[in-house]
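>> received
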Amino acid sequence: MDDLGQLSLIRQLDIVFKELDNELGGLSSGIVFVQIRNNVIGKFGIRHNPIAGKGGTFAAVEPGLSAKHRDDFRRMALETLNHKRSWTHGEIAFDFAVRQGTILVDATLESNYNMANLMIRYNKPTYRDRAANSE
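>> returned
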């Protein structure tokens, strides 16, 4: 397989959803997350909604996402990348649930920046540099 960094972000996200397909088939709600660094997906997974228990037993398991739900979810997730702008580091979280037979997805895009990298890029003295020069 090609080096992951050589794959487009959209192709990487497609691979994530193919890897999670079986697990999503057993869930009706939760959060799929992908962590991105240098436009490469590193960590990804699903945060399952709590499984409620009462009186020493758990409630009956609801049916998970159907094949159509999973396909619609994957397509919506891929479309979300159209809203990602210039950032290269961050996380995208897809909160999903099935309501009345329809899958609902809310996407949260989180960009991360590193101030140390900005200081190098702008080549400006840091607070420590100024403090050292003032002594």
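>> The chain has a mean pLDDT of 88.
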